[in-house]
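Design job #97: recover the sequence.
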């Protein structure tokens, strides 16, 4: 029996911890720092690598890292140097997410399908380029910007103001020292996530996120307002195409370039005319995609995590999934993704039942009450024999939960009802 330390405090980490704790191999799951819904919380932030390593060592934990920031800062390298078991990519391999410039160049030199692009570090030449092209652009800051560093433009005027925002006003600080101007591809988005051990990659179930704050994909981008799995956007043929031409190509090129990729490899895909284009790589699980994926996973996640660390994935069977659909509706506090109230009491949480799960994100527990403490507050996740049934199950659970500034989209999953 082993102990597991889950690093992070979002809905993704609650869902990972929930799944890991169902493994017969696991004695105790700790969360650092966790949230109001997770058990065995340890008050150490994800940036305190040495303290986390000390805790993991003293409590004989295998460590699983949820968010990108500690991965990009090299938590896997630090733990590995100390002889501690940890799941995720090294700092170098995490560049697939932490530098969009690096990732775009990597895709170009390895023939991985992505939108055409140019890289700039001065505003004058970037604007000249933006005015010279006859297709719409997306302007992206190079570094990590909590999902906010991407500006989708309609015309060159939009592109010029996006260039000013990043390169001149420095709205994203050092993350915006370089920018990418890439062709906007208008298609349908989906998430394709695989678990990798440096050589081999096994697909997780497919999913689709809902990034905009309002129904019908209106309003600004957020960290994700809901997700469902599986998604009809990725049928079997497309899935094979992505597995071969995106995931396996990436894994073998990363190995060839001397930085084998271990951990969850997330490809954000735009599908246009039946063809996949990589919009971004993430070096971790998606949030909220993780929540519906975890409730559909039948295999023991711990087996796959250990095989990823040990490089033995190919000895395991492919991951098995419930045939049911799952939907996660994210409940936020009104005002998110900008400013929002905190400290409101959440009522109606009840107990987890067989078909629905309330994964916590921005919550804290104070004197027996559960209070809101972040923008994305809860991820209400439900299974159903059909996607429609999963949607109904999730929204009936959502209706039982309340706090003064609760807000959610009412159309999560509808995009999958073809
Ligand atoms: P990224 O973080 O690079 O995935 O970008 C965030 C969001 O911006 C994506 O989920 C898409 O909705 C949108 N986006 C990014 N790149 C493109 C592109 N080349 N064409 C159209 N939309 C894009
Ligand atoms: N849901 C998108 C992400 O995790 O980046």
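Job complete. Output follows.
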């Amino acid at each position: 029996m082993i102990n597991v330390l889950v690093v992070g405090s979002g809905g993704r980490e609650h869902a990972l911890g929930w799944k890991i704790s169902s493994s017969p191999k696991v004695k105790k799951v700790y969360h650092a720092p966790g949230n109001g819904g997770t058990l065995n919380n340890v008050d150490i932030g994800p940036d305190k690598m040495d303290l986390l390593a000390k805790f993991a060592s003293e409590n004989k934990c295998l460590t699983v890292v949820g968010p990108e920031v500690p991965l990009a800062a090299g938590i896997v390298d630090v733990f590995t140097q100390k002889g501690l078991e940890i799941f995720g990519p090294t700092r170098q391999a995490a560049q697939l997410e932490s530098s969009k410039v690096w990732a775009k160049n990597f895709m170009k030199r390895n023939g991985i399908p992505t939108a055409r692009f140019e890289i700039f570090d001065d505003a004058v030449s970037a604007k000249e380029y933006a005015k010279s092209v006859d297709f719409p652009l997306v302007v992206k800051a190079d570094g990590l910007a909590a999902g906010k560093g991407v500006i989708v433009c309609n015309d060159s005027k939009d592109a010029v103001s996006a260039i000013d925002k990043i390169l001149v006003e420095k709205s994203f600080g050092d993350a915006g020292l370089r920018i990418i101007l890439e062709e906007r591809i208008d298609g349908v988005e989906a998430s394709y996530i695989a678990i990798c051990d440096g050589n081999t990659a096994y697909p997780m179930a497919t999913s689709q996120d809902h990034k905009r704050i309002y129904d019908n994909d209106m309003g600004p981008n957020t960290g994700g307002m809901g997700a469902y799995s599986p998604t009809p956007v990725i049928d079997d043929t497309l899935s094979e195409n992505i597995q071969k031409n995106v995931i396996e190509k990436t894994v073998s090129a990363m190995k060839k370039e001397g930085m084998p990729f271990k951990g969850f490899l997330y490809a954000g895909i735009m599908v246009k005319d039946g063809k996949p284009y990589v919009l971004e790589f993430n070096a971790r699980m998606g949030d909220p995609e993780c929540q519906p994926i975890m409730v559909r996973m039948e295999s023991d996640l711990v087996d796959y995590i250990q095989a990823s660390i040990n490089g033995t994935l190919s000895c395991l069977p492919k991951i098995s999934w419930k045939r049911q659909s799952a939907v996660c509706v994210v409940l936020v506090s009104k005002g998110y993704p900008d400013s929002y109230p905190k400290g409101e009491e959440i009522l109606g949480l009840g107990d987890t039942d067989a078909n629905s799960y309330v994964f916590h994100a921005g919550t804290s527990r104070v004197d027996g009450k559960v209070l809101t403490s972040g923008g994305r507050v809860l991820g209400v996740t439900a299974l159903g024999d059909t996607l429609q049934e999963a949607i109904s199950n999730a929204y009936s659970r959502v209706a039982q939960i309340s706090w003064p500034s609760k807000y959610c989209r009412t159309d999560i999953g509808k995009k999958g009802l073809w």
